[in-house]
Amino acid sequence: MKKFISYIISITAILVLMMFILDIIYTQIYSRSNPRNTFQYILKTKDIKYDIVFLGSSRVASHLDIKLFESLSNKNAMNFGVNGISLNDNLLQLKLLIDNNISISEIFLQIDAEFNYEDASIVMTTEAMPFLKNKIVKFHFKKYNEDFNYLYYLPFYRYLIYDPKIGFREAFFSFFNKNPKIDPKIGFVPKYGSDLSIPRVLPLTVSERNIILEEIIRICKKNDIELTLYLSPFCSKVENKEYLESLKNKIPSLLDLSEGYDDELFYNCGHLNLQGAQLFTENLYHATLNNELK
Amino acid sequence: MLFNSLDFAVFLPIVFLLYWFVFNKTKTQQNLLVVVSSYLFYSWWDWRFLFLIFFSTIVDYLVGLALSKEKKEKKRKNLLLISIFVNIGFLGFFKYFNFFLDSFIESFSFFGVEFQGSPLNIILPVGISFYTFQSLSYTIDVYRNKLEPTKDFISFTAFVSFFPQLVAGPIERATNLLPQFYKKRHFDYDKAVGGVHLIIWGLFKKIVIADSCAAYVNEIFSNYETMNSISLLLGGIYFSFQMYGDFSGYSDIAIGTSRLFGIDLKKNFNYPFFSQNIAEFWRKWHISLTSWLTEYVFTPLSIYFRDYGKLGLSIAIVINFTICGVWHGANWTYIVFGFLHGLLFIPLIIRNSSFKEYNISEQKKIPSLKEILNITITFTLVMLSLIIFRANNITEAVNYLKILFSFNFDGGFQLLLIRRYTPELIILIFSFVGLEWYSREKEHPFFGRWNNLKLITILMCLLLFGAFANSTEFIYFQF
Questions:
Q1: CA-to-CA dists, residue B97 to A89, A197, B101, B103, angstroms
Q2: Closest in B20, B419, B455 to A165, CB measured
Q3: Considering the entire predicted model, what is its pTM?
Q4: DSSP-assigned beta bridge partners for residue A53
Q5: Per the CB < 8 Å rule, is A164 touching B469?
Q6: Which string of DSSP letters, residue by residue, matches B195-239?
Q7: ipTM field
Q8: Is position B186 annotated as part of the catalytic site?
Q9: pLDDT tens digits for B284-325?
Q10: B465, B241 contact by CB (below 8 A)
């Protein structure tokens, strides 16, 4: 029995050692490689000045043609919108941008149904996992992720649990600095065509409050960043459109940019196609900065 | 409690240490711990169904005792019928009641007769098909005088509820498993290490092969209407490997875990994808169910139909495999799956080749062209039947097969909305097939000179390629 127990202990020790070594290898690969997603791009961007930063989900990533916006406004802007992320993730993005000494004059934050959610998205959680030792990331997840202790203290556990996006394949490509399909430096992910067959359903009611948004507002104030909250358009077939009215009542400062888009300008009910995005970029510019400039 | 869960990783060492260090004085102590831990293991899902296992155990134990005392054939037969009625009754009610009710209503409405009846809200107790068949084998064997009935209730309870194989087999025969509970078990280092190796190999098959395939399979089968033939073909291949990795992985973990407690379970899979015909496939796939059905269903049926020669044998085999299909669950897809496999035996019966052994020599590094052709044909037939098995209903299965055989290859390998990629999975499956081929005469690949290195490599592969993010329940839990 003694021999068997030593055998089990050695197998367990080898397994733990492998997890420990793999954790170091993967973390090093992700830390040293070229950015393959927006999160990595934010982490590796330092000491830059942005006049305007756009934050939000895919309804920012696909709606703001940043080159067009820069040419219209003559300002240095960046679109940090990411498909599937939440306000909680925007908060983390903001904290990282500030920590990296990135100077921002104004932030445009897109809000709609996200107002009802305070959790981090799986997308951003996954992208952030290799950087859990970063103090900002660490404290953010410690506060908002109930599995933090497992993720932080068990070696390689984070890579096992989120393996579809940060597993072997991604580590392999990162190691060889393979270019990603969507370049995070470009900051605009246009969509093509139009298919409104899948309905988009908004929540029935608006949450009482969103503490994440409150924290974003607080941080912006503290760092002298002007914050503009705005609402992007939905197609005419969106269900529970009353939600948007209730949201506007809840946030009186919410800039409504959702009107005036025909259905053919939509890729799907929640996302504009390239033509729609270019029109939206122009409209946003005229509705905000152009008025100011005049 | 899943074998691939953290709960089980805590449960198993605790029971192991208690078994060998605390409850190790007598076989009764050991068996008592087996019973308590097995009931705890089962109650992790739903403690209410412990009653069913316990009731089955008591009925079969008492029937066994009564059979030993009873000499009159008619009364013995009645006692056996009580056991069959209770076990099959539970199984029938929990598993098939709604299915038969629906089929009954549908068949009446087909003839224009409306029949009112609403299905019951029945939860299927996990593992019911496995433990009822296992328990039933005891009373049948006692009835046939192949086994002495036991007076040791604790040993019998341990036999029915032994946790490593309680919920998804292998379905053990009383003649093999029960006598092992009559003796005190002594720790055997080689057996225990072999058990650990099987557990690791089983986890590899489940987490690396089956769960990797599962993500693709779910995506393809959910969107089959929009996919081309090549994607649907891959869907069928992936599901075949998912089923195999999942169920044989479970069986390996169950057998390995049993060995840690000094108990030997029978092999349940023997590299079935290298089979050269359907008969050989079924001698190597879910062996414990096939051998159970052969002994208790096929053999009596073939005796009954013996006067009809090959026709009789064919009828017996088709009935046998249809029952095999029904055993899997209350859905026409399973019934058709079983029935088709029965039909696939008929050419072999006609050619007298259903019992022919095709073992490919261990010395052969690669199979001959004929062997490759036979293996490919057998795998293709199995894969096509598994598409029916996987589909939600017959209409879906037929539509899937229609698109598959439309030979539409436009678009090549289609992108799936999952963060996993076709070339990687194909490489993984080919590597797995190579590894299986290399170790086809052994239980697992951990043998020979580089034993420890192979073990470390598999552990590394588990970490690197395991699909932990979408870890799923074992497929056979639902049966």
A1: 49, 39, 6, 10
A2: B419
A3: 0.86
A4: A78, A107
A5: yes
A6: HHHHHHHHHIIIIIIIHHHHHHHHHHHHTGGG--HHHHHHHHHHH
A7: 0.81
A8: no
A9: 999 999 999 999 999 999 999 989 888 999 999 999 999 999
A10: no
